Amino acid sequence: CEEIKMTMQRHPQSLGYSKEELNRLNQAIQRLTVDVDRAESQPTLCQASQSRSTPEEEGASGSAKGKLAWLEAALKQSRQDMARQLREYQELMVVKLGLDFEIATYRKLLEGEERRLGLRRGAESLRKEKGSASSVCLPLPGVVSLLGGGAGAGSDALETSTPGCSGSLCGSPGRVKEFSCRDF
């Protein structure tokens, strides 16, 4: 339960970071595209007046070409970064969907066990049957099964597979209840 919760907390932060990074890269690409368009129009102006060019103008044209090459390389790098970020985002979405499915599956399993055991709202209200000695064993987080007898024979007691365990029951946000085996 805790591992799934921690994973879900990490992934939304990563998803938010990836979205922000994608937006930032898109803005950078737009700025670079404008700069490239501007730089591409500059050599055209230089070519039109090339018959009157001087050595100084030729140096300026060379620096514009150098700047254009640099801008094109930066644009290419930004596009590669954006593609990488998009792949990472898609991978995170696949992980998120898998975790959502797993959470839904465990929630349904837990609800089925709660119905079978007569529990309402998680472990808050365990209906105790009159005259029968039963105990609840929690071998895995969120999985509840009824055992008859055991160490609690003759009294209604909860047992766990790990002595003195504590943790929380899984469920929807309104159903999470902290427990300690000694509390029961």
From TrEMBL:
Record carries keyword Repeat: no
Domain IF rod: 1-117
Molecular function terms from GO: structural constituent of skin epidermis
UniProt key word Coiled coil: yes
GO biological process, one term: intermediate filament organization
Polar residues biased stretches: 41-53
Gene Ontology cellular component list: extracellular space; keratin filament
Annotated Pfam families: Filament
InterPro entries (UniProt xref): IF_conserved, IF_rod_dom
Stretch list, region Disordered: 40-65
Keywords, ordered alphabetically: Coiled coil, Intermediate filament, Keratin
Family: Belongs to the intermediate filament family.
Protein name, as recorded: IF rod domain-containing protein
Taxonomic placement: Eukaryota, Metazoa, Chordata, Craniata, Vertebrata
